[in-house]
Amino acid sequence: KPLLQLEKVTKIYPPSIRALENISFEVRRGELLFVTGPSGAGKSTLLNLIFGLERPSSGRILYGDLDYAHLRRRDLIALRRRMGFIFQDFRLLPEKTVFENVYLGLEVLGIGGAVARERVERILRRLDLAARRDQRVETLSGGEKQRVAIARAVVKEPELVLADEPTGNLDPERSREILRILEELNAEGITVILATHDENLLRGHHRRILVLPEGRIVNA
Ligand code: ADP
Ligand code: ADP
């Protein structure tokens, strides 16, 4: 049984932007799926739909047996807790420390105290951020910021990580490092969906690639 299933999903933003048209695919548990396509093809829209931030105009999204359309709001929020989201622009709290940014990711889930602190310390060591622990995020390099964002996403111990152009603001070397980290997490069993238009990231990987066609504007 796939972890995630999209069936004929279409997303139209008012009045007539066809961000996604009739997209169907499955993601198996433990898979690393690349999503690519030109700017405007709907990559972000697709990840937002999967995270439940947007609703499809038509079609179905299933997470295991759960049909998003039948979920109550609080169930959708519970589902979201099983996912980690990584953004191109990091979306960290710049004036807070590395530790605080990652810790807050757990606190919002109601996990606090020594258990949470230990989990944060462990992920910071893992992502080579221990030495930056008490530094404010705004003082870090781009690659370090993205590692903090990854730490914040995976400290939740999610089943699924959604990464939206996670290397968009990074140089090629830092980009490869971020990809390596995501591949490592995937090798440990986390399912990863990685949206990117970076050809260099896609090259040489024997992975499934979902290519979204150019977005279209409907003539109403
Ligand atoms: P990508 O991530 O591949 O660049 P997006 O999903 O960001 O593509 O955008 C797909 C299309 O939908 C674009 O034409 C974009 O302008 C439009 N779009 C995205 N989000 C919104 C929104 N919230 N409201 C209206 N149009 C949007
Ligand atoms: P609000 O208008 O309060 O922001 P939402 O539009 O996020 O609420 O959600 C309203 C209802 O739509 C909820 O029952 C929610 O479960 C459902 N919903 C939200 N996202 C999706 C989605 N991607 N697919 C299907 N249903 C959704």
Features:
single chain, 220 residues, alpha/beta, 5-stranded parallel sheet, 25% strand, globular, binds adenosine-5'-diphosphate
Description:
The protein is α/β, with parallel strands linked by helices. 33% of the residues lie in helices and 25% in strands. The chain has seven helices and ten strands. The chain has helices at residues 43-50, 73-80, 98-107, 113-126, 142-154, 172-187, 199-202; strands at 4-13, 17-27, 32-36, 58-63, 66-67, 83-87, 160-164, 191-195, 208-211, 216-217. Strand 4 and strand 5 (66-67) form a beta hairpin. It is globular, with a radius of gyration of 18 Å. One adenosine-5'-diphosphate binds at residues 13, 17, 19, 37, 39-45, 215.
Task: Give every kind of bound small molecule, once each.
Answer: adenosine-5'-diphosphate
- What is the terminal separation in angstroms? 39 Å
Q: What's the helix count?
A: 7
The value of Rg in angstroms is: 18 Å
Shape call = globular
According to DSSP, the number of beta strands is 10
How much of the residues is beta strand, in percent?
A: 25-35%
Q: What share of the residues lie within helices?
A: 25-40%
> Sheet with the most strands?
5 strands, antiparallel
By helix and strand content, what is the structural category?
alpha/beta
